[in-house]
Design brief:
The protein has three helices and no strands. Among the domains are: 32 residues; 56 residues. It has 167 residues and is mainly alpha-helical.
Length: 167
């Protein structure tokens, strides 16, 4: 059997050393960069869709912006706007009709409510007011009659009259 003393020391540390904040930050940034790069590659090659190019504008947009608007294009745009205005006008008319219908229903319900409240108010007015309760005359207190001094019962039971002793 061996006994340990305080002088004995072992090379095994009790706790593992903590990582520094800087090394943790570097690891997190590397993981984020790897994930972002993977996502860009997936989008570019895995999906079949090309990445948007910010270096130059597409040729189609440049061609349509420089081309003057023809009369047929203007008329087509004018017809689209007219159709849109017509559908908007129809929706507005339908909304106004619905609002008028709802307003009429509310006014009819208000009239019915007024008719119901009138008989209630009339019935409450026809009821006689409750008669005030007459005040009870104050009763005069009777003077306390002196109690005869005698034996006192501590149990609450009445005591009988004292007995006269004769010799």
């Amino acid at each position: 059997m061996t006994y340990r003393t305080d002088d004995d020391s072992y090379d095994l540390p009790d706790e593992e050393p903590r990582r520094s904040v800087l090394s943790t930050l570097v690891v997190v940034m590397l993981l984020a960069a790897t994930g972002s790069g993977s996502a860009l590659l997936w989008r570019a090659y895995g999906n079949g869709a090309a990445l948007p190019s910010f270096a130059s504008a597409p040729d189609k947009a440049v061609a349509t912006a420089d081309r003057p608007v023809g009369l047929t294009d203007f008329q087509a745009f004018q017809q689209q706007i007219a159709a849109s205005l017509q559908s908007t006008q129809q929706l507005l008319t339908a909304q106004q009709a619905e609002m008028k219908r709802l307003s009429d229903q509310v006014s009819a319900l208000t009239g019915k409510l007024d008719l119901l409240q009138r008989p209630v108010a009339a019935a409450q007015g026809a009821l006689p007011a409750p008669a005030p309760k007459p005040a009870a005359p104050a009763q005069q207190k009777k003077p306390h009659e002196p109690k005869p001094a005698g034996a006192i019962s501590t149990g609450g039971a009445p005591l009988s009259a004292p007995v006269q002793l004769t010799r």
